[in-house]
Amino acid sequence: MSPILAAAALALFPPTDFSTPDGPPVTVTCLKHATLHIRYADLEIHVDPVSTGIPPATDYAAFPKADLVLVTHEHFDHFDRAAIDALTKDGTVLVANPAVHAMLGTGTALANGDRLQLRPDVSIEAVPAYNTTPERLKFHPRGRDNGYVLTLGGFRLYVAGDTEDIPEMAALRDIDLAFLPCNLPYTMTPEQTAAAALSFRPKVLVPYHYGATPVRRVADLLAGSGIDVRIPAAP
Prior knowledge:
Elements: H1 3-9, E1 13-18, E2 26-32, E3 35-40, E4 43-47, E5 68-71, H2 81-87, E6 93-96, H3 98-104, E7 108-109, E8 115-119, E9 122-129, E10 145-152, E11 155-159, E12 177-181, H4 190-200, E13 204-208, H5 216-221, E14 228-229
Parallel strand pairs: 4-5, 5-6, 6-7, 11-12, 12-13, 13-14
Antiparallel strand pairs: 1-2, 2-3, 3-4, 8-9, 9-10, 10-11
């Protein structure tokens, strides 16, 4: 089995096709923890690629080179310079929050609220991601880290990064697929994850970035809400 197929077979959320209003489908894979691989048309997109340190190990040298890499913040389970180097080619667009951009010394820095139009059918918006519970403020302070809203051929994908159920989520519109973190003590409880989803009502919700937190409770809490909750495989 090729390294790519092996990674897909072990994925938290296996390769899944989603139709777009304006063109080819979007294929989304959560390879592990908070690491996503997205294919759209001729684009290879990676969000928070991590090779080692978070199991299973991922051989990014076996993947096609990336057209776009997004990094939400500096923590080891989101930012891996070796993975970025393995994916980079001439023309790779690397987008990160300002702190990671400063560490890398290259790419494009997007702060909360910034937007990048990559091409007519592809845009990236950096949105806030932070803690609000007093004992968790040290993990993800307000204004430092990003979530991202990717618009791909009219399909809108929200990758929340590490955050709690912040009020800015209520301003999100027309989200087709959302990845929301659900793990203590760093991000959200199942109750917070459900409340976050109800604040903007994505069509499909995938709780990700979880460990011992009982993530299946998110589906129970959202039963009857009209939100399609898809619980990924155990990490």
